[in-house]
From TrEMBL, chains A, B, C, D:
This reaction introduces a second double bond into the aromatic ring system. Its cofactor is FMNH2. NADP(+) binds at R48, R54. This is Chorismate synthase. Belongs to the chorismate synthase family. HAMAP family: Chorismate_synth. Homotetramer. It is an enzyme of class 4 (lyase). Pathway: Metabolic intermediate biosynthesis; chorismate biosynthesis; chorismate from D-erythrose 4-phosphate and phosphoenolpyruvate: step 7/7. InterPro entries: Chorismate_synth (IPR000453), Chorismate_synth_AroC_sf (IPR035904), Chorismate_synthase_CS (IPR020541). Reduced FMN (FMNH(2)).
Length: 365, 365, 365, 365
């Protein structure tokens, strides 16, 4: 496949370019009978939407999702759900420079080498705009998981540059444009962004996502493990360069006696594993982290080549984010929702008639 | 799918339990005309094989791979290549304890919750023994990539606990049982393992893998990106908890002006990106890192529950590795080879008749 | 998967209900550089379009396809091509009867049993309206096959009821509303349809499709053979109940000495096999036939049950075809185009570097 | 994919050449807890096995299936089930002629054009020997379907040449080497085969397969319909050239008032549709027919070309079947079992929590 369909049982087929007429997706495999309206998608779309604060890109898109199929009288029917988001704020401007020159560390050069051409307008298919459809599709999964299984998903900004953030007030994450889980640190983030703006530079970020209420048994060893599919899903988000499950790279320095999550009848005694063992969910909270690189769309000039292969210099202008990671939280939550949804359906395909010899033990003590 | 087939164009279907009669795989989609014998698989299998040094598990398996199909008169025919590895050293012993009690942080509990039962002998399907077939399959991909495309793959131990290792002598990696790339530090590793043995404990590790000579254009955005599929492939290896592409989590603290890989007609001026942009290979070396947790099979007793849900204690005995990461290098190399092979074939499916407007620029200056 | 994505390398994801806001599809995997405009899709869409003659359903849909992505400056870019067709003539009427009662031999009852509900308006997802998007997607494949490989695809009505038609004038097929390949027999078909109209009844049809210029080598034994995938593709068209490759069911009475296609350096000496051997194309014309059942939407009352499980009677009113097979020719051509396109790309994924020991012999003497 | 994995949720990956060391398959996705031994596979394997009567090929293979994985203490565990069948009667002989000359209507020429080479020994991968693994895999599906869902599958020879056979005594089908459902006609078949033997010629056959007890709801419209997947599965059997569901090509001459299966609360009043509507099972018996061509391995010489492209003549010698269709019944039954099994699991993935508004009505009155 050419890579634009995600999932195996709950699938998302994504299409659209940043400055084409529309982006959208087709969600296939959703169980019938889920109450669903366009406003269910809009909540998460609005959280991801650009132009909402002065700390992110100023492109203004209403990002109104329209459901074209698969819903009848307010409920899913089991047939494919097509979602369409029109592009509205495609500023008509001169793309001459971007068209001829490869922006360093962008997908421009790779697309040309792969396809021999590219839609250069606003990044075309490689634009982060594509992630809006993931958020829309993820909202469907998220609603099902919450209503049918009691699974709750949340994410937050855990680090931006040298600023480390603890999740001290998870309920406040949506109250600030950074998805910062510590209200006392928001001013610090604002100041850091202002410095980057002034310097014409950018910075990386680390996001944490977590799902609670996940039943044990999700994941298909040996290749389509829950953690494996989650790693792929998170790595497929623009700018992501690293993924961790549970303690992640901290494991390298841990001893087994420290790392192993002991069990008791009352619940797991720790969660270093991030809720996955042998590629299968354990019932503990599923927790992952992702690293996003600093965007390369900065105003500091950089060396590059043009389409003739000649050396030149590039300085990105236009609307961009000093920290693309700031908008990644709802996208990462959406991908986690999609992974859990797909695995829930696949798990019951094979194992719907299984009764384990013991009841699940609680994920947390 | 139930998760035991990897890949889309070059596929590997894996089967077998640790203490069953055999493990093996079927490799489908290999181009015809590749010279291939069983000894081509054996080189890498021998590198992964247990029982070769006193620093790893003492299970002794010859790991002789037998090719059952798909090769005729010394060349691949384009039909599926079945590889069989008989299990020989399945020690006949009392599994009573393991059968009734869940080892903390093993897949035991998750398997029971998913399937309602499990083959408890030696870890059954969740045993690291399964990775032998990945090495065999990877050896086929690796041979093709080397002979047809000039791609070279190598890996090394980059960290064990607090011991950080630089790749100062890549040619010596296979000369020691740790895949240590610095011969002067081997004694240090030996000493650390001896301490762990004495303590009955274990430690994590970090492995780096790299492919040079990768042509630009591999990877299928937006979901089946090269980095995304590589993350999944590496995360599917037993005990892996984190994956990085290029600078990985270091990106969080980097500025865009530092991170971006500038280009010149003579070549890329840096490789922070790990050879992937927008999910597509750039021609730079493809570089990834993985974190392996400390094995939970340690002799220090741990709290757990039994199959009746009652609290109990577990102390693993038998043959195990103080650092499972020590044997992971050939497995990670194999998974990298499989990912590149699959993406090469898929890339040419869609783009075989593309001529980019400029020649690829070198991956390194 | 839930079944709305077709293909493996060249994929079509279909969505939409008969009386929803729109139908459409996403075509993924198209090679870049193919000149493509909306009018390229329109030619075939217009051939399938209802309401064009008084012999088929009188629903009037302009069936204007809009391309939303994947085409830039008149050429495909290699990214997914979304095609949207708005529904316009959704007559607002009382669906009360259809909603409560299962039309015999329609999908109504099966949908209820599967999904527990259905969009009853105009057949919902099970309507033949869905085939419009197949024709649009097929037009893209067809253009590529013609321009890059010289493959020509055509189809015709071979039988309607007891009227058998020979392909005596293939160039006249598009000159009449029946896709009849014999202009002298058109009046006979008209008369037969008029009788059916009068009787409120319907009739079956047999369609033949053929592709010339197909290179040898397409098809992936043992399960994804060219004939196997073609059988699935044709059987997936609404109302199709039988598929034949080459001589099909006539083979049952043939002897091997008659059936086998002998070869000569100048070309194959016959084509009983329909251009496929061992599941792989031979270079002969690929030929298939399909049987379409008489539509069950007739005005003669029939016994059935209602949603409460009670016995009742049903008489279909509204706009319907006395012979649904009459509009199937462009759909069958489209499916043949899709199968060949997908297999061409998959074939070159594995075998792009193969040089057979002898040149292909011509498909026809 | 290269075509050797069948299915989506219940998958079969097949490997092996006719005269290589072994053939086999990996069955993935089987629900855990199914009682399974090698003898469960052997019953159907013995029905397909050659050399059992003088009316079929005299190759003598014990076809002993060995289960290598996925079964523990007599029950499936949910992990992949590998099945191995060693080749024993590979007569050592001179393949010089077959190696250099393409047998008319065999896969020889197509394989060379596709892969540039082929394993010519006994037909290699294109040999009907490969179907033994389908029968083994099908036996697993069949056991599950019978024990868990009460589905019974049977097949019979419906026609050989001009001899039409009615299913008058279904219980006697296994009592004769032809799978003839009418004991009074067995002598007629014997005589016909003797004539073909004498003439050195061959004949085609028509097989019917049927499953009773199939619940409504199986099948995934619009592309992976039950009938569509069944058509592909049956067409993938060697020598098959046509597939019908229900009345098949007879529909062409039927009127809608005759064809449509009316419903009553007591059950369906007919089964022209073969148990499928809109691509979904209705609860009626699922019935299909397949046409097998006369084998081209006959002793009457035929014109052909050699590997240099020169004209020559070919006369097949060795062990072959005058009617390959005679051994196809268990293979067709196996494919039907696989299709139903895969669709059952997929159906419940999406729809496990659906409750239809009415109880299923019986499939037959």
């Amino acid at each position: 496949m050419a890579g634009n369909t995600w999932g195996r049982q709950f699938t998302v087929t994504s299409f659209g370019e940043s400055h084409g007429p529309a982006i959208g997706c087709v969600v296939d495999g959703c169980p019938p009978g889920l109450a669903l309206t366009e406003s269910d998608l809009q909540t998460d779309l609005d959280r991801r939407r650009p132009g909402q604060s002065r700390y992110v890109t100023q492109r203004r898109e209403p990002d109104q999702a329209r459901i074209l199929s698969g819903v009848f009288e307010g409920e899913t029917t089991g047939t494919p759900i097509a979602v369409l988001i029109e592009n509205e704020d495609q500023r008509s401007r001169d793309y001459g420079k971007i068209q001829q020159v490869f922006r360093p560390n962008h997908a421009d050069y790779a697309y040309i080498q792969k396809y021999g051409r590219r839609d250069h307008r606003g990044g075309g298919r490689s634009s982060a705009r594509e992630t809006a459809v993931r958020v829309a599709a993820g909202a469907i999964a998220r609603k099902y998981l919450r209503e049918r299984l009691g699974i709750e998903i949340r994410g937050w900004l855990a680090q931006m540059g040298d600023i480390h953030l603890d999740c001290v007030a998870p309920d406040t994450v949506n109250d600030n444009p950074f998805f910062c889980p510590d209200p006392d640190r928001v001013a610090e983030l604002e100041a850091a962004i202002n410095v980057l703006r002034r310097d014409g530079d950018s910075i990386g970020a680390r996001i944490v996502v977590e799902a609670t209420g996940v039943p044990p048994g999700l994941g298909e060893p040996v290749f389509e493990r829950l953690d494996s599919d989650l790693a792929a899903a998170l790595m497929s988000i623009n700018a992501v360069k690293g993924v961790e499950i549970g303690d992640g790279f901290d494991c390298v320095r841990q001893r087994g006696s420290e790392h192993r999550d002991e069990l008791s009848p009352e619940g797991f005694l720790a969660n270093h594993s991030g809720g996955v063992a042998g590629g299968i969910s354990t019932g503990q909270p599923v927790r992952a982290a992702l690293a996003l690189k600093p965007t390369s769309s900065i105003t500091i000039p950089g060396r590059t080549v043009d389409i003739a292969g000649e050396a030149t210099e590039m300085r990105t202008t236009g609307r961009h984010d000093p920290c693309v990671g700031l908008r990644a939280t709802p996208i990462a939550e959406a991908m986690l929702a999609l992974v859990l949804m797909d695995h829930w359906l696949r798990h019951r395909a094979q194992n719907a008639d299984v009764t384990p010899p013991l009841s699940p033990i609680p994920g947390d003590l």
